Amino acid sequence: MAQADAGPLLQIMTRGRSASETGCDEFAPNRHQDYLFLHDLSVQMTEAFTEYLHKRILGELGFAAEDRATPNRC
Known about the structure:
Blueprint: H1 17-27, H2 32-61
Helix pairs in contact: 1-2
């Protein structure tokens, strides 16, 4: 099976407006610990979803075997 030439791909993910607005609500009344927990959780969830989506896209394009299971260590 020939692989399709996908060309350059760009993937952009954000935490979303709801997480940002809720973060502002937590930050404003000096609830910094709640803000940090919310911020970190929303960033980690966004990153995890991006990794999942990336792997799925590579699989659909036929490049899943080329994706490394673990990143290079410096």
